[in-house]
UniProtKB/TrEMBL annotation:
GO terms for molecular function: catalytic activity; FAD binding. GO terms for biological process: respiratory electron transport chain. It comes from Vreelandella nigrificans. This is Hydroxyacid dehydrogenase. Its cofactor is FAD. Belongs to the FAD-binding oxidoreductase/transferase type 4 family.
Length: 473
């Protein structure tokens, strides 16, 4: 008997595949990493996931879990050794329960995020996690990386949107922690330990998520600024003016808007010309009438315009116009891809240090790599910037990316020096794994290693991800 044969007996031949049958699953979204596996399996439920884990444990075979394969750090890509089993959770896609009195929804890890949003809406509720990849990413992956997205400012990351979990442990046991409680002070918070662990501590198979009442109205605007400091000041101003109604504050630079106009000419631009240095897409939502919310929105923006704290404003006048503005924001990655590969970074700093970070990092990179192009955008409301650096005009992307490590060191060192993080919402995976020893203290890394060993003593859950190799410590 072999592991492959035993897996077929366990799940059925149709749900156990070879590497050749799942080639598209053996590389990451950007095709930076490629792997190989003993088998790829598609269990139907939590019991089958647990049985797979127990069987792999008997063979001492590592397990890599994959959802929608939309991650950016290679966390869901197996290594090239061909020793691991790829665990695909797409069959765990049931909505188990909706409780509108408790405002919760229990869903399986393979549920597509957009399907969860739509199901909540059909029940008259809002599940606010929103990402550009929501049509293909899964809840399990969202929780594994503690996904952020466009509404973190108001609702928080995936961790804040989750009340309970169901998890298969490294021993193949099942922790049934699908509590819908908002208050439960009985011991250690295992939920928060597993969320963001990228499949290295346990396999999330289901979650109980928070729901919210659907807003009665939304107002959206595109705002222009001559200086980044004006955008930061305007964020504080809108927080005071709109309070909890402020849902999103998405920043993008003038070069980002120009890139969109160049690479996606069919996309509707908010202004006739791109003449300002910075722009923001802001949105408020609430339970008052549409007329009252719109009146408040227009009053605040008009005052800001007349006081010259903003350079220009476009307020969406229809649902279609709102969708067009959001389409611009969500198309930035595609526009960059059409321009060519670039050095991407997902950093966070305190909002009060955003201006300093951008000005300092821009200057350092121009000194060391004259002519590089900066495409900076992100979630200003929570200090998360996607700070991307492209090759100078006339230089190929391939030649420029030979300097990727040096460019990233400038970006990450500056963020770290300003009290920031080298990963805000994309996780660590394998791409940033060895950077952990540079930016995390020895005490932090030791604690993480001890937790990993306690929960996965044989190191079979997603090896080679998140934590640096011990010899690097």
């Amino acid at each position: 008997m072999s592991l492959f044969t035993d897996l077929q007996h366990l799940l059925g031949e149709h749900y156990v595949q070879s590497s050749q049958q799942v080639v598209e699953r053996l590389t990451d979204r950007h095709r930076r990493y490629k792997g190989n596996v003993v088998a790829a399996v598609r269990p139907a439920n939590t019991s089958e996931v647990a049985a797979v884990v127990r069987l792999c444990g008997q063979y001492a075979i590592p397990i890599v879990v994959q959802g929608g394969n939309t991650g950016l750090m290679g966390a869901a890509t197996p290594d090239e050794s061909g020793r691991s089993v790829l665990l695909l959770l797409d069959r765990l896609d049931r909505i188990r329960a909706i409780d509108t009195h408790n405002d919760t929804m229990t869903v399986e890890a393979g549920c597509i995020l957009q399907n969860v949003q739509n199901t909540a809406q059909q029940a008259g509720r809002l599940f606010p996690l929103s990402l550009a990849s929501e049509g293909s990413c899964t809840i399990g992956g969202n929780l594994g990386t503690n996904a952020g997205g466009n509404a973190v400012l108001r609702f928080g990351n995936a961790r804040e949107l989750t009340l309970g979990l169901e998890v298969v442990t490294a021993e193949g046991e099942v922790w049934e922690g699908l509590s819908g409680l908002r208050k439960d002070n009985t011991g250690y918070d295992l939920r928060n330990l597993y969320i963001g662990s990228e499949g290295t501590l346990g396999i999330i198979t289901a979650a109980t998520l928070k729901l919210y009442p659907l807003p009665n109205a939304q107002c959206t605007a595109f705002v222009a600024f001559d200086r980044l400091s004006q955008a930061v000041n305007f964020l504080s101003f809108t927080r005071e003016a709109f309070d909890a109604s402020l849902t999103a504050f998405e920043l993008m630079s003038g070069p980002c808007l120009s890139l969109l106009a160049s690479k996606l000419p069919d996309a509707s631009q908010p202004f006739k010309t791109i003449e300002h240095a910075w722009y923001a897409l802001i949105e408020i939502s609430g339970h008052q009438s549409e007329a009252d919310l719109k009146s408040l929105f227009e009053k605040v923006l008009f005052n800001a315009l007349t006081e010259q704290s903003v350079a220009d404003v476009l307020i969406a006048q229809s649902g279609a116009q709102r969708e067009a503005l959001w389409h611009l924001r969500e198309s930035l990655s595609e526009a960059q891809a059409r321009d060519g590969a670039n050095a991407k970074h997902d950093i966070s700093v305190p909002i009060s240090r955003v201006v300093e970070f951008v000005e300092r990092t821009d200057a350092l990179l121009q000194q060391r790599f004259p002519g590089v192009r900066h495409f900076t955008f992100g979630h200003l409301g929570d200090g998360n910037l996607h700070y991307n650096v492209a090759s100078p005009k006339g230089q190929s992307s391939e030649d420029f990316l030979a300097n990727y490590a040096q460019v990233s060191a400038v970006v990450h060192d500056t963020a770290h020096a300003l009290g920031g993080s080298i990963s805000a919402e994309h996780g660590i995976g394998q791409r940033k794994r060895e950077l952990m020893s540079r930016y995390k203290s020895a005490v932090e890394l030791d604690l993480m290693q001890r937790i990993k060993h306690a929960l996965d003593p044989h190191g079979l859950l997603n090896p080679g991800k998140v934590l640096p190799a011990k010899e690097a410590l």
